[in-house]
Amino acid sequence: MSPHGETLTAEPVPATAPAPAAATGDAARRWRTRWAPYLFVGPAGLLFLAFSLVPIVIAVALSFQDTATLGEGEWVGADNYRTMLADPLLRTALLNTLVFTLGTVPTAMAVGLALAVALNRPLPGRGALRALFFVPMVAAGVVVGVVMSWIFNPDYGVANNALRAVGLDGLPWLTSPRTAMATLILVVVWTRIGFCMVIYLGALQSIPSELREAAAIDGASGWQRFRRLTVPMLAPTTSILLILNVVFSLQAFDVIYVMTGGGPGFSTTVLIQYVFRSAFADARMGYAAALGLLLVLILLVFTLLRQRATKKAEELL
Amino acid sequence: MTATVRPVPASRPSARERRSSRRRWLLTAGLTAVAMLVVFPLYWMVVSALTPGGQSASSDFYVWPAAPTTQNFAEVFAQQPVWRWLGNSFFVAAVGTALSVCVSLGAGYALAKYRFRGRGLLYALFLVTIMIPIQVTLVPAFLVVARLGLVDSPWAVILPTLFDVVGIFIARQFLLGVPDALVEAARLDGAGELRTFVRVVLPSCWPLVGVLVILGFMNRWNDFLWPLVVLQGNESLTVPVGLSTLTNNPAFSSPWGAVMAVATVAVVPLLVVFLVFQRTFVQGIASTGIK
């Protein structure tokens, strides 16, 4: 299994469990427990070095270069960062990212919470229902993308056919800059409600039911119990889900790539899409690297802000 | 992991019971309707795959095609190397998951059960990589893989994903819960460190291994962007990348039927795994969100 097997098992092993008097056995054991962790963590460490750390260092170096192809670049100082400040497309991409994140995260979390609360009750067929809501999680982003493109096809898609069947006009969905973003948000929320539901369900099950029963006996209505008891008890879960969902939204690529490729025009180009486009369509590797680092910065700032907010909230409580 | 506390059914007045039972059925009906809507897209994918031309000619809606046919499957399997794609995907997912689970278990064990110099720093560095989107390291990682001479090989897909922070994180959390006394006892019995891990610790970790395997396999089977960058020949693509090349393929006059057929083939294996191992699956997803 692991490459260091022989060195460890080949060591002399004391035959019986000795009393502390057996000093040599003790020393050997101490030596082993001192070095064993490095061997256990070694493979992960090496892979981390080769495929995470080295690429990040290269990315930082690239962000100070002008590289047209994958060849050697030319050092240009902070030019890429200066370009970023004056780039109107970047501003649009950032705005789109904000709209996409604000559209997906709260919606998915609210729907997920509602489903979790509903499915936490003893309902007939509860297990099957939970499974059904979870199914979209299993589908690859590309599969979701092509299936949804087909469903929202303005001419032949089943969505517009359904609208026309009830006498409404079909919508342009992905083909108009006015509706493309909303359609994408709808699709991404669809892929994510199962995840939010599962996490909330796990948290709900760890709330002692005596608490809810006591509140009910005290005459609290269903809504009051939800508002005053369930929501505060779920606050830590909500906090984690918020971070995860924001990270997912900032990194959402597959679905957008397949469904709109960032278009029509520039209407669904989020930051991550713009990074990809700069690197591979415009062949501006250096600029793409700088944009990528901006994205990392945004993620880090968000996480830190969130941590501080959680800490403040905990202090207040 | 989570203790489920079931409420003891108390005897209640029957009028209230009846009302609450009616409300329960209403709620179930409502939820069922929503659930239908939620699974509809995947259902429609299968229906379209079984309809000639993917229904592009008609605007009629039907729940099930009048004459379901596998013509779309036959056509696309004949024109594109779909079997090769499936084989590539399976190889990448199976080998990648097996190796990655070993790496994650080892790292998780070291981080959970040993005190060693640099442990805190290492773990912090690992965790920071969660924040780094793949697009940032895409070009540099490609350069590394190219330097290793692996472009267009399945190993180009496998190697960079072997380091799996979330897997290490889950493994560490789980292994923290394994009592130190168990490890100590094995050591006192004279077992070496590796033997202690494999013979004593690992057997109490099968739920963890199940979660890691299922999550790892799903993520690799569905992965898109990295394979898209490092795989080039049509014969060496994985299913998601192959699928994405079909949508704009001029070779198909009406590609929707073919696209839905390949999409179906891409989802069904995971759907089967999901239905068989539902509990482990859900637990795995949930454990990524638990601090």
Explain what this protein looks like in three dimensions.
- The complex is a heterodimer of chains A (317) and B (291).
- Chain A has 14 helices and two strands, in the order ααββαααααααααααα.
- Chain A has 317 residues and is mainly α.
- Chain A has helices at residues 5-9, 23-62, 79-85, 88-119, 126-134, 141-151, 158-165, 180-205, 209-217, 222-233, 235-251, 254-259, 271-281, 285-316; strands spanning 65-66, 74-75.
- Chain B folds into two domains: 17-79 and 249-267, no CATH class; 84-246, MetI-like (MetI-like fold), CATH 1.10.3720.10.
- In chain B, 68% of the residues lie in helices and 0% in strands.
- At the A-B interface, helix 1, helix 2, helix 4, helix 5 and helix 6 of A face helix 1, helix 3, helix 4, helix 5 and helix 9 of B.
In short:
The complex is a heterodimer of chains A (317) and B (291). By secondary structure, chain A is mostly helical.
